[in-house]
Amino acid sequence: TSVCQLLALLRGQKLRILNCHQHTETGDFLGGFRPTRPTAVDGVDGGDDAAEGGVKKIVAPFAWEDGPLIKAMRDGDILLVDELSLAEDSVLERLNSVLEPGRTLTLPEKGGSDVEELVAHPNFLLLATMNPGGDFGKKELSPALRNRFTEIWVGSTGDAAEMEQIVVRRIPEPELAPYAGHLARFWEFYRGAAGRGAAR
Fold first, then answer.
1. Smaller CB count within 10 Å for the chain: N or C?
2. Exposed/middle/buried for 81, CB within 10 Å: 0-12, 13-18, 19+?
């Protein structure tokens, strides 16, 4: 995630982040119909009507609101889908057309007589992160979706000096910073013991 944030900063692009979980729905990516809030117009307040030139106009109780995927495609932003593999396959299959060379997305969910087909802005990027499928509670991506991504493996750190630097930056109280080295050395010891099966 930090690498993706740095990439967006270097490219000067807005980064939108969507965190996936087992209850993630298609609407979390695309958007959906949300209740509208009537506002006071020309002295008319409340109700389902708004005044326009002295004539009352019916305000729909629901209006479509674009989700992060659609906003990123329109504006040329970077969309980071965090923990991609936690979402259901049926939800993730909607990303397939976006990751094709045509980079399009058909939106029948918006309704209406014409179905909108959105073509991504040239600067649009879709990035995703996930833990390996062997981790507890994790699963692998479908071959159709996985083949559309370029995978970059980011391994965990194994260096105590690097871990000490991370701990120093994460400790909020400066007076506790001297203990970072002790924590890093304990982490290194425990990691070695767990690898040998001796940790209890």
1. C
2. buried
